Amino acid sequence: MNEADKRSGHSKEEGVFHAPWEKSFDKILTPFEEFVHRETTSGLLLMGTALIALVLANGPLASAYEHLLHTLISLDIGSWTLGMSLHHWINDGLMALFFFVVGLELKREMLVGELAQLRNAALPIGAAIGGMLAPALVYFAVNPEGDAALGWGIPMATDIAFAIGALALLASRVPKALITFLVALAIVDDLGAVMVIAVFYTDTIALIPLVAAGALFALLLLFNMSGIRKTTPYLVVAVLLWYALMQSGVHATLAGILGALSVPATPKYNPERFSKHVMGLMGRFDASHQPGKSIMTNDKLRAVVQTLENGVHSVEAPLQRLEHLWHMPVAYLVIPIFALANAGIQLEFASLGETFAHPVMLGVTLGLVLGKFIGITGVCWLMLKLGVAVLPKDTRFTQIAGVSLLAGIGFTMSIFVAQLGFEGNEELLLMAKTGILFASLLAGVVGFIWLYLVSKPLTVKDRTIT
Fold first, then answer.
1. Do residues 114 and 121 make contact, with C-beta atoms less than 8 angstroms apart?
2. For the whole model, what pTM was predicted?
3. What is the mean pLDDT of the chain?
């Protein structure tokens, strides 16, 4: 390494240049490993931003924090205007990107993942259904009538980032198949939550905008069937779909799911065609290479590299490319921003006894912790007993029970549903958020301890996350 390289912070090794932190990103991960690593980091960011939100809401900056969230932000084009508070832009706008990534993950799982084969998909699908119904019934048993009953959908959801983050801490003790089971369960769970939002948390429907939204979704499907693989047309129409759904009364974030389902999952080139394409390009690359000359001054070399880049995009399905592109900003920015805007609840320590005895708080807590455990574990036991499903490879039923506890970490989706169910009712919303935070903490701690006690350390070759 010469002095210039040292001063610039770069290292040189056999023609490879590394920025100071670049080597940490050099490891080639499978899509599943990449997904788990990002969700783990996202879970840690969620914890940090949730704590920051609590500090802001209960400290000297509480009024400034509240004022910032209610700041009106408008987009004006001529006589047309779209204005919402910062809080609504986050919940209705940014969260559409979250649902877009959820939709991409769901489509991938259904096509090539754990949900693609019925034998593998049966157990997580059944577990997810049980894990949605039982919590809703537990909540409804505690809150059978009045405004409080509107919160029955709150304990149905699982926060995939938090749950996987907690499970990843046990990477040296749990098999990879157990994390795969949790991922599949949480994705089906998210789909169920989306359906609940669309059907039960939509107040009024405006027919003309809804018809326009249907036409836009049909246009997206037409793009797919026509073989359009450029992502820009999909992006433009998806934004229009988001606005149409917002005007229709259906929650606008569902545009993310619909947009994701329309994204093509078939690449233009198959691997064999791509291989021949690359070999031909590499021949041109070697012929155009001039030793000691920078690629920036070699037009022929740059043209080959650009063609190679286009070929890489053609062998990679647009769905795969978009999931890779958007997963990181959603996991590291969108979800933490959502937590920062929604986890800031005012804690009244003098009245904690009354808070914990409140039916909404009690219903959410029991739904997430007890309901999830009973629903997931019960359905899995029944399906295994009837022989309609099999345990994931190298897992034990006691570990499935531990995962059912981690599934009680509701956070992101639960808070999102609470915002919809108790919009305009600050007292019930406060009780719901308090219950979500307490239940998520309790479910995470108890689930972690349970899995630690029932799982033995794995050998090095069997470890899930390296």
1. yes
2. 0.70
3. 82
